[in-house]
Amino acid sequence: MTIKNGIRGFGLVSAAILAFAATPGLAGDLTIVGWGGATQDGQREAYFKPFAAKEGIKVLEDSWDGGYGVLQSKVNAGNPNWDVVQVESEELVLGCADGIYEKLDWAQIGPKEDFLEESVSDCGIGTLTSGTGLAYDSEKLPDGPKSWVDFWDLKKYPGKRALRKGPKYTLEFALMGDGVPADKVYEVLATPEGVDRAFKKLEELGPNLIWWEAGAQPIQYLASGEVAMSAAYNGRVSNVNAKEGKKFVFVWPGNVVATDSWVILKGSANKEAAQKAIAFMSQPENQAKMPKYVAYGITNKKAAAEVPPELEKNLPTNVDNLKGALPLGVDFWIDNNESLTQRFNAWLATR
Amino acid sequence: MMARLWNRRTRAFLLVMPMALFIAVFFVWPLVIMVKQSVSDTAVLQILPRTADEVAGWDRASPPSEAMQAALIADLRAATDEKAVGDMVRRLNSAQSGFRTLMSKTISAVAKPETGPLLAPVDKRWMQPPYWIAIADALEPRTDRYLLAAVDLERDATGDITQMPEGSSANRLIFGRTFWIAGLVTLFCVLIGYPYALLIAASTGTTRAILLAAVLLPLWTSLLVRTAAWFILLQEQGLINGFLLSTGVIASPLALIFNRTGVVIAMTHVLLPLMVLPIYSVLVTIPTNLMPAATSLGAHPLRAFVHVMLPLSLRGVVSGMLLVFMTAVGYYITPALVGGAGDQMISAIIAFYSTQTANWSMASALGMVLLAITLVLYVVYAQLSGRNSIGGRM
Description:
By secondary structure, chain A is an alpha/beta fold. Chain A is built from 16 helices and nine strands.
């Protein structure tokens, strides 16, 4: 091949690459993005596969770990390669205000009254309710902690503790550990003194405090005995008990309850299929299948009624479990996440 | 003749084109955008032009005037681009926490015609000067606030540069730590990598193949897998502690993970191939008869090494150190997984601002500072190690 032909060849190849890059995401294959783990395994069985079979379309999956910047840059770049995404409550509120989600067509989904109040919004529909709370291994601690106050009791319960690396949840737990009742937590946290108080409380645990970032980590720490107790997601705790025969306990009083929602990213090439998928995943008969796979609450009230009692008692939405629970302060965190994370990082760095 | 020369030049130019284009698109352009992001501050001005005019005459202490409030309402009513409004709110909330809920409340209120001209009925926070100061401070299209914040500085009410209040930001500390960890890792990589490269270069046949494979195989393995493997080895009930405990070398488990030790061990292992390979590639070009020649002239093997082998192989060491250090500076996954709270490096902070809060300006400013420090270090390093060793004759 002569140089000239080589150059021509290169030109063709680059033209092909440019053309490929400029092609919008192929319409037809719907991409649904969850948070991985047992939850997404359950969603695959309860939602994705039956939906793909019913509609005769291909459902692609991806998973992520949250982060509003990720969604924003996908939408701003145009042609997002994700269609339906499971987002946390703050991401739902922020994105809805910024217009990075498509507005939902509720007529396709069903009457709003069928759903828990906090799961209804213009841009998204709640799909699961999770609890983040105190967990421990009852085989290692037979007379385990009952509250966040016990979490700070190093005399009665020696050993390390683990919390989620970041201010969200951590500051709430610290205040409850300092004796603030659940319903007063955000009131106290809204004042500078309250924030100081929470950081001071964290300081108390000194070197006995370690941090986790992914939801699987606290379960590993508890299983390996690395920590005596940890903050953890209730679904992960139920899951390890069911699948690995562990005797982990999730302490319901003082757990922070939050709702995740499905949204459609603005500019999705599969908007209609996405809308249909969300409607499908919100139907009572489909939602009712989820608690079998993972112990998170479901948002369709009709579905909740169909869940067998032995599964229902492990859900964060169970009436008894809700006693003493703290609903996540979404407004508080959309206002304060950045400044408190900055302070949290500074605090961590100087410890 | 001229035509042929021209042709040749065109060809040469066309051959370099892909590379030049690649660098322009994937390096220069993002860099320009990053610089621009870190000093640009137009998000608020773009949405609130009328308010900007009114705020200009305000004394920053008294309650907002009626004209200011009316101007804000008019601006918000005129704004149509949701994303631009979102950028404005993000910018304001970043300076004054609470703006997010205040703005969403206000935006839905001004959508109703009966709202105005005063804002107190919408939310009494509008009567507090701090919220208006945040707006007033966000109206210059160019700003140094992000670059200052990247090194824990800010401007006070009079416009002088001062330290941020203690405990509110620790970027300088984290920058220092980043370079310190990168330096330590580079040092350990040299100490382990150099003898190992000598060993490979001195061996032949199958032995050399096996020794090389031991370097290359980890290089082809995913970074995440290697880091996870270290997690299993180093943890309190892990293999290393288990072995040491069972042999009675130690009485209680060593703290090898979630601290600096773990980060340095794991990063040294992960980056070691980047040190071994350049050194090895230089060592194999050194004629094998030089060391025996030096010895035959009466030099002690150590002296022969210091005066013959080391200077000749220095080029490899210098580029290996550069490769390891530069890669280590940007490390993110390994410190996050095997490090403790006190081992976060600056990339983790940059990732927080970009992927979590979408504060691209702050992320860019931190990136700029990192780039600037790294460039300065590179220049110093290039001077110290002699230009030839880095870029020159090969």
